[in-house]
Amino acid sequence: EDQVTQSPEALRLQEGESSSLNCSYTVSGLRGLFWYRQDPGKGPEFLFTLYSAGEEKEKERLKATLTKKESFLHITAPKPEDSATYLCAVQAERDSGYSTLTFGKGTMLLVSP
Amino acid sequence: NAGVTQTPKFRVLKTGQSMTLLCAQDMNHEYMYWYRQDPGMGLRLIHYSVGEGTTAKGEVPDGYNVSRLKKQNFLLGLESAAPSQTSVYFCASSYLTGGGYTFGSGTRLTVV
Question: Residues in chain A with pLDDT < 70?
Fold first, then answer.
């Protein structure tokens, strides 16, 4: 069974205070790892896909990295508008050729001015 | 460029009532999904479809039915609503297996 564990559950930062969110996963074979951002009352918004260990992707103040067991979402010099819940999801390789995403419970980030 | 549109946005049902949630996408995506999101539980897959006329069960399918009669639409039905089905329901679609899903804005359903 595929499992995704995100930590911490909640994180409070001061504006400009860099930090990282963690996503640990267990999957028989990783096809892809996904990061999403979700604002209150809205649907998740796609951020990144990572496919292999060592891969990194960046978008503005966000940088996602991937190892064989976990992924990190690094937030550099965050701003209040970065406040949101960040979701991690994995897709496994399947012999049948298709599998859906399994999501973690998310990390709620609050950035104070 | 609407993306994924869900209707209705809010609904209150009485126990035992039925309803249908509609999801429409204008991106010509093959794959569509229905998730529910509950506090402390994260997003859980209810049903999904890999193409017009196909449906498959996800992690929590009991109490729900789905239909994909047209490629752009994916309907989620509750035949006899229960309080345990109080949740926020999200529809999503994607081009490829595991390509970034595009989510709708959600339907907040309360069953009393």
Answer: 97
Band (pLDDT 50/70/90 cuts) for residue B4 is very high
Distance CA A74, CA A106 (A): 15
Chain B neighbors of A45, CB-CB under 8 A: 103
Q: Report DSSP letters for A32-88, one per residue.
A: EEEEEEE-TTS--EEEEEE-STT-EEEETTEEEEE-SSEEEEEE-S--GGG-EEEEE
Å from A52 to nearest chain B CA? 14
- Considering chain B, what percentage of its residues have pLDDT values greater than 70? 96
Nearest to A42 by CA among B87, B105, B104: B105
- A97–B98 C-beta distance less than 8 A: no
